[in-house]
């Protein structure tokens, strides 16, 4: 049931033009633009090239776009149109409704990562081989955390509210959640808070893995906590209508 449900959700996402704009076109545009233009502060880059520094953060943005924003909006409108109410009449338990959407988001993230990685490679990206395994674990945990948060948001509010709030959160986390601005570039107190957000933990973890080749245990722990807590709450609060 999980495999079938995840396959259907992933197919619906990949067929949706607006979803592709959010999950792939915008991240690719930012990757190319920020890699080619001199808009990033040199103090943030350190010894890394622009494309090496920005690619892990674009991967984090892609995960957030598909697993959180896209999932929340899709779930909100599925509830509005009675999709979940009809699914509840089947043998699918509520936890599987959450898990199926998270697995579908993981499938989309894999495809996003391949496309973004290929484009970044053409731009000169050279990730650290020692950090590839750590980066894969971070992408899985990030997808689980953002996917659970997306289901939590999309399953609790009206579709119109979900649409507005999910996009607002996306912009806030992009600009001030540790993706475009590293926590180290922020005031110390704010930097600590941002590093504990799923966006900051995923972006910094991927940078540490793919640029420095480090095993990012701290960001992994942060993402795991977000995934477990948000997932447990979502299974109890998701409304079918």
Automatic annotation (TrEMBL):
PROSITE patterns: ABC_TM2
Keyword tags: Antibiotic resistance, Cell membrane, Membrane, Transmembrane, Transmembrane helix, Transport
Residues annotated as transmembrane: 20-37, 57-77, 98-125, 131-154, 161-182, 215-235
Species annotation: Amycolatopsis rhabdoformis
UniProt record similarity statement: Belongs to the ABC-2 integral membrane protein family.
Record protein name field: Transport permease protein
Membrane topology: Multi-pass membrane protein
Pfam families the record matches: ABC2_membrane
Principal location class: membrane
Subcellular location: Cell membrane; Membrane
Highest rank taxon of the organism: Bacteria
Limits of the ABC transmembrane type-2 domain: 18-241
């Amino acid at each position: 049931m999980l495999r079938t449900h995840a396959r259907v959700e992933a197919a619906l996402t990949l067929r949706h033009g607006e979803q592709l704009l959010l999950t792939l076109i915008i991240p690719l545009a930012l990757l190319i633009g920020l890699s080619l233009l001199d808009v990033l502060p040199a103090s943030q880059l350190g010894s890394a090239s622009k494309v090496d520094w920005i690619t892990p953060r674009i991967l984090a943005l892609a995960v957030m776009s598909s697993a959180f924003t896209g999932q929340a909006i899709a779930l909100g409108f599925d509830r509005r149109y009675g999709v979940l109410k009809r699914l509840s009449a089947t043998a699918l338990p509520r936890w599987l409704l959450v898990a199926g959407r998270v697995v579908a988001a993981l499938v989309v993230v894999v495809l996003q990562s391949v496309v973004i990685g290929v484009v970044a490679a053409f731009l000169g990206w050279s990730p650290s081989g020692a950090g590839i395994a750590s980066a894969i674990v971070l992408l899985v945990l990030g997808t689980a955390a953002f996917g659970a948060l997306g289901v939590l948001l999309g399953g609790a509010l009206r579709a119109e509210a979900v649409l507005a709030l999910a996009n607002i959160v996306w912009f806030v986390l992009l600009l001030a959640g540790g993706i475009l601005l590293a926590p180290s570039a922020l005031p110390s107190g704010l930097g600590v808070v941002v590093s504990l957000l799923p966006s900051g933990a995923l972006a910094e973890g991927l940078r540490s893995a793919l640029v420095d080749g480090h095993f990012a245990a701290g960001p992994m722990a942060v993402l795991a906590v977000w995934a477990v807590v948000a997932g447990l709450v979502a299974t109890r609060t998701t409304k079918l209508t």
